[in-house]
Amino acid sequence: MAQTEKKSGLLRRTSSSKKPLKEKVVLMYDEIFAKEDPTKNNPRFWDELFLMKVNLEYLEGKLESLDGDEVMKVKDNINSLFHHCVQALGEEHQIKVVNALQTLCALFRGVHQKNKSATGFDIINMLMGFDKAELRMKELMESLDSLLCGDGSESLKSLCLKLLLCLVTVTDNISQNTILEYVMINSIFEAILQILSDVSSRAQHGYDAVVLLALLVNYRKYESVNPYIVKLSIVDDEPTLDGMGMVIHHALTDYNRQYKDKEEENQGGFFSTLTSMVGNMFIADADEKLSVQTNEAILLALYEAVHLNRNFITVLAQSHPEIDMATTPVTPVPASPLTPLGTTPPSLDMMNNPELPLDPNLQTSNLLITFLKYSSIIVQDTKDEHRLNSARLCLIILTCIAEDQYADAFLHDDNMNFRVNLHKMPMRHRKKAADKNIPSRPLVCAVLDLMVEFIVTHMMKEFPMDLYVRCIQIIHKLICYQKKCRIRLHYTWRDLWSALINLLKFLLSNETGLLAKHNIFQLALQVVNLFNMFITYGDTFLPTPSSYDELYYEIIRMHQVFDNLYCMVLRVSTNAGQWKEPASKVTHALVNVRAIINHFNPKIESYAAVNHISQLSEDQVLEVVRSNYDTLTLKLQDGLDQFERYSEQPKEAGFFKELVRSISLNVRKNVSLSTMSQDVLLKEFSSIS
């Protein structure tokens, strides 16, 4: 019995004396790539073509093998293929629609692969012809819109989204993809919103829809008016916004669950001890190393929603039961063994479960809590550029949240308390806290915990200066809100003060190495001004008078760090050089901290001498502090409670361009129209037809 093997459209018999036979569809492709019109000998050519199972590999390979001159010779036939693909999308025969969608994908990919150096206009001309391009793309987008919004097959809708993702990501730089101009003109924004607002549709296609929207929003966003940005910024439909939040929430939750499962797998025995000692994330086989690579596409979608749409802020606080992801039955999503965590969409059962029965003993959660847990994983390891960028995006999102008035209101709401179990980096000097010991507190406490954790764990040789600056800015914005609204937050402020002082100590110890790469005075100024905020306005937002006393105690106890900082900035500011001015600003900012130290230290020494005590206890120092406030003179410093609001352009434009490029490459890689999916689709529609 003859055994067949498929390769590039060839069917080879086991007998070597026979010539390889070509599939019929491959023969038809060859006719398209000949100079003659294929309908000349067969008027039903196009009808027959779309009844044939697409050979993606052969078609893309054929397109890639043509050089510029050859492409122009068969341009009319390629234009005709594109035209008939678009026409076939309106067919009632579903197999034709499936094959047309897959053929279009092969066309977009094949032409772009071969002509990477060609202009967008040349590619448009190759695919559909200049004179017909506007009409063809209008017809294509209308057909895709109808398929996405209709009551048809979910598989077809999925294929439409895959085609759109394929189209959007064919170029490395999304803004150089000229075909997307037609996607701007013939918007599918409403179709995306419809998918997100419908529970069933969202479960099937929400992930692809959200990623597609995030990419479209970033098309030439700085050069022209992008209609997707405009439309996203004014969406106020609650089910749609909730749907978008649900998709993002489940994708992040799924990542958190995978991480936790993998973490538990790797705990125990010698390897666990070794992991804790060296501070590594995991010990694993090289082939199965756990990647902490974030799902940047879904994170970008969250950023765009938070940044562009004020109404989305309410979605962050939408409470629902916290699902124990480990015990929830899920449908596995096929992924390669080397697929990093979070790069595959969440399972459908999770996506299709927007409401669960409320259990009075069940901890409630929301998108913000899930994002904070996710961020606590991502910011742990920033050693390579990819992870550093992921952590940066997390902190940018938190920056947008921290300066939003409505977000600040629910972050500080005493009636909205949650237990947030943040992931912490293994460190030798501390034990892992038990989940049950985590108190229920306003969400701002979890944000501050995350910031403190970052400050404490990233004082290293490859110092992530940018992340530290963002971290201190987030803390500052939250404290400005507390001061403005006179919110007395019951938080262990001492942990923050201790972390900030240790950060200053680190900057001093590594001055030479850090100054070669960074402006450490900018960060030092931010830290000192945080202390100035507490000194000047602490009586309006610290929870108790004793908290204010403890602030002074910490400054006095660690006075050597502030003294050393003053000596360093004074030395730099009195010498000519590039750091003269920034160092001088820190010198002026230290005036009140030094006043406190110079006022109380002699009083403490005098108290110790009079009472014949060699070393005072904390209570004794606090007693001296309380009894000597009246004679302390401080200077009023302006602008401590002012901050520059976040703006994406121009500061962050370069970062987002590179981020979108990275996401586009990753999405392109994962948009798979494999033989298996073809077989599934064809089987489904063969039974219908």
Strand element count? 7
Ranges where pLDDT stays below 50 over 5 or more residues in a row are 1-15, 273-290, 324-342, 348-361
Global structural class: mainly alpha
Strand order of the largest sheet: 1-2-3
Average of per-residue pLDDT values: 84
Helix content: 55-70%
Share of residues in strands:
under 5%
Give the quaternary arrangement of the chains.
single chain
- End-to-end C-alpha gap: 31 Å
Major sheet summary line: 3 strands, antiparallel
Number of helices: 33
Q: Report the radius of gyration as a whole number of Å.
A: 31 Å
**How would you describe the shape?**
elongated
What order do the helices and strands come in, and which of them pair?
Blueprint: E1 6-7, E2 10-11, E3 21-22, H1 24-32, H2 45-49, H3 56-65, H4 68-73, H5 75-88, H6 94-114, H7 120-127, H8 130-149, H9 154-168, H10 180-185, H11 189-197, H12 199-217, H13 227-233, H14 238-265, H15 269-278, H16 296-308, H17 313-316, E4 320-321, H18 348-351, E5 364-365, H19 367-378, H20 385-402, H21 405-411, E6 417-418, E7 441-442, H22 443-457, H23 465-485, H24 493-509, H25 511-515, H26 520-541, H27 545-557, H28 559-573, H29 580-589, H30 591-610, H31 618-626, H32 653-670, H33 675-688
Antiparallel strand pairs: 1-2, 2-3, 4-5, 6-7
Helix pairs in contact: 3-6, 5-6, 5-8, 6-9, 8-9, 8-11, 9-12, 11-12, 11-14, 12-14, 12-16, 14-16, 14-19, 16-20, 19-22, 20-23, 22-23, 22-24, 23-26, 24-26, 24-27, 24-28, 26-27, 26-29, 27-31, 28-29
